Amino acid sequence: MKLRVLGCSGGIGKDLRTTSFLLDNDILIDAGTGVGDLTVEELRHIDHVFITHAHLDHIASIPFLVDTVGFLRDLPLTIHALPEVLEALQKYIFNWVIWPDFLHIPSDNGPFLRFEPFQLGETVTLQGRKITSFHAEHVVPAVGFHLDSGRGSLVFSGDTTVNDKLWEAINKITNLRYLIIETAFSNLDYDLAVVSKHLCPSMLASELAKLEVPSEIFITHLKPAEITVTMKEVRECAAAYSPQMLQNNHLFEF
Q1: For the stretch 45-82, what's the b/e string if a residue is b when 16 or more beta carbons lie within 10 angstroms of its beta carbon?
Q2: Distance between CA atoms of 65 and 81, rounded to whole angstroms?
Q3: Which of 11, 58, 144, 252 has its CB 3.0 to 4.6 Å from that of 30, i.e. a possible disulfide?
Q4: CATH level 2 (architecture), domain 2-253
Q5: Per-residue model confidence as pLDDT tens digits over 153-200
Q6: Entry pTM
């Protein structure tokens, strides 16, 4: 499996893209603004999108993606998510007010888009690639994902705060290589991190202390105005884990 980082920022601006990862050439893990950097030909080959939660920075490109490639594809684009997330997409996005309802375009029998709900903890297997959801502790229903090629695994925390269930799941993985985990705010914004259910560096360090299996640690979802100070605090608070800042176009192979 190869995972390419299309976007990993907590905001936008020059060279900043919100959360989106391309798995091999046919699966998106979240669909933030980074998807817009792909060519139309690359977009056409995407068959599946796995969504952690319904916040805009993680779904922004889905409406444009389906609108762009619908006529270029023989099969509908499949969105995999919790039932609550799919319900939100239908109610608030594909509702003919914000965007056309591509679940019924161009026809009910041949739509450009289809929804495939999964249950928490369920594993979806696509051509031998296993994608398993696990609980993320956020302000809306949310998950993270465990990607397993058989030879190695990568875990993406999704948006989360203190989350014992995350570590229960991770510590059972025998072939873990990489952990991508969010740290949205600096320690100065601890109260905001708590109320919005994100992590700050001091909270991250406490969470990483629960990790019992070896892994390379990458930090994602940094707020643009606080990138430098937050990463400085991450390196100070979690020095024992040698955390690295995730970057656009980073390629993970596992």
Answers
A1: bbebbbbbbbbebbbbbbbebbebbbeeeeebbbbbbb
A2: 17
A3: 58
A4: 4-Layer Sandwich (3.60)
A5: 999 999 999 999 999 999 999 999 999 999 999 999 999 999 999 999
A6: 0.97
